[in-house]
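Researcher: Please predict.
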Amino acid sequence: MHENHRYVKLAWKGLAAAAAALALPGLCRAEIVAPTQSEALLAAAPDGSPRVAFTSGRDVVVARRTAAGWKFARAGKVPGTSPVLAGLVVDRRGRTSVLVGARNGSWLALASRGGKLRVVVRPSKGASIGPAGLTLDAGGRPAFAYALRFPSTKSWLRLVTTDARGRLHTHGITKGGFPASAFVPGAAPVLVRGRLHIVETFTDSAIDWGPKTGGGWEGQFLFASRGGTPAGRVAALASSAGLWSAWTEMTAESLSVLLNLSAETQSTATALEHGIFVSLLVDNGNAEVGAYDWAMLGDTPVYAGVLADANGPFAEVDGRLDGYVRTRDGTYQLLVSTPSGLEWFESPTRPSIRVSITADANGLVQGRVDGGSGGGVQIYRETASGRTPVGVAQLAGDGSFSFQDAAPTSPTLYRAVYVNAATSIPFAALLRMPVG
């Protein structure tokens, strides 16, 4: 998988004070959750209030938005130095559960329903845990799924549920080392008509595992490929249209984001031709994904957040997208990593303003904004040394814009950013190939 080298260790001391100074809640405004570029996840409580999980050194921190600002609680300390956030859910009482794993697959830790983080899985010698997933069962209790893989390529899929007393119970889903996989399989538990299923991704394929009447589990293939393999995080959600799942598809040439629907038949669409999957939501039976794309300046990646559905991308935002959710009341929330830190946004409608951009070696930058209404577009130069604002281009009546910059003297990626006045969401377009 593409490593984004995005982990920044921050001391916990003073973090809450710094974030509180930057964030004052208001309707449809951008807010700094925390001044960090660490890995993060976003979830919404039943009342629509957001939760953000992120790492601060070895600490796992959960942020909750209140009328007085963002409040922070330490979920606990991880046993290693390279944690990966695997899942974040909020139950009907507003209690948050966080699943965290080791990047090398050597442990899984769970902070359940507001409790402290504790290691719940350590594989035997030689085995590795793949990308895991977390959800709530029909009773609103946390449940997580993971797969173990041995050097022999054999794998074992497991589901772990929580009983009414908070005790964990492990259920074996597959036996005999099936399926064999060249990569450690990914797993995502999902509630389907009141019963837990698991979507498992492995070499070239994806399977929906569901409980059989009378006991045991049976699988239905969702996807198979000759040219690529699922890699990294997988997510699944059930809707009236069927079972949706999404993941990053890795080929010899690229990484793309796939969106699968399993109903009477199975269908798979490429939501994003180049990018890494972040999150999945369902809106009135249709699925959307959050992802991030990037362009390279030498060895430095420059990120762009992307929102897409089965028809392809419909919006891009400035920064690396870490979360995209839809609340029960129909609003949308985004979590974006920017140079300022983790920024949270809320929109009452689907965030679908589309910005496009072109530029040449002489510094002529052109493009358009579809879905906006007047105002200007901030033009930035992105170079290996960082970002530089170079001017504002005013929108014409048809949404087009044009800006003449000085000819760049080093490889440059131009970015156009249009900030929606109602939501403060920074809709954007980033060149994917440098000029100059």
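Model: Helices lie at 15-22.
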